[in-house]
């Protein structure tokens, strides 16, 4: 929403929806003004229109969103010694020891000013003793706010908030808790851990720790070069394009599933070829952050077609996804219908339960092993 308002200032202060234009589309993102009407991401566009008839619907521009995400990441790399990129627009920063030199509060304020100056985007942040409190507090001061929760004040900060604001509590869990009279995080924190464990299983114990402000999860240093890849050396060198295409589809689909299983998006697709004379060539394409198979498959095929120009026998084919960031494909399919999104979810659910080879595209097995 911030990028859209930056591109068109007349949109500021208005209820905005990013998503498909048809009634079968879904909301990919929405402005704070739209959220006041009860609209949220993944909601059917048709329902969102009923809740807020005056909402402005935008198709979305992942190219711009990716560009600004990379810009802010570069600012972090230039100014912060240790940070984690938790999503396309969310960062955790480790300021341990900073209070002895520059001061955490002053450093955070100066960093915010720099991001706003260089990107034009609003920035919300919260200084806290752990990632959990920082995330919850940041959500409380959006948009463009800032807050500091002193060490020891974690429980008192969380206490009056609704249980629905605690990460890890979805609609069903919130309903179960509220039905039992547990409406605030303080009430949740007062329930014995064993009782919550009995009520909600392992998730109950985790929620008890969160409700008490406990979180030891570390900052995971951002590494741009992390990748997910696979390659195959063929038993016999081949020039059979039908076979090569089938293998490319199978391999892309396999690591695409792994990408989604890890809740990550890729910003770059690389294809690798090794010819029969052992010459190895690679080509890559930078793309908007995604983990949707139909985009990854089309990109992989495009890169392969540009790379394979010798018409020589091939002995090895590989594909790699890099520039990985955390994210979920559901909010990226701007023009897809609810049915398509549910299809993706169902396919991945079956693969997780029974193995990824149980469901594959027919083209991935077409062509046999002819050479």
UniProtKB/TrEMBL annotation:
It catalyses: DNA(n) + a 2'-deoxyribonucleoside 5'-triphosphate = DNA(n+1) + diphosphate. Gene3D superfamilies: 3.30.70.270, 3.40.1170.60, 5' to 3' exonuclease, C-terminal subdomain, DNA polymerase, Y-family, little finger domain. Its EC number is 2.7.7.7. Keywords: Cytoplasm, DNA damage, DNA repair, DNA replication, DNA-binding, DNA-directed DNA polymerase, Magnesium, Metal-binding, Mutator protein, Nucleotidyltransferase, Transferase. Residues 1-170 form the UmuC domain. One of its GO terms (biological process) is error-prone translesion synthesis. InterPro entries: DNA/RNA_pol_sf, DNA_pol_Y-fam_lit_finger_sf, DNA_pol_Y-fam_little_finger, DNA_polymerase-Y, DNApol_IV, IMS_HHH_1, Rev_trsase/Diguanyl_cyclase, UmuC. Its cofactor is Mg(2+). GO terms for molecular function: damaged DNA binding; DNA-directed DNA polymerase activity; metal ion binding. The keyword Acetylation does not apply. This is DNA-directed DNA polymerase.
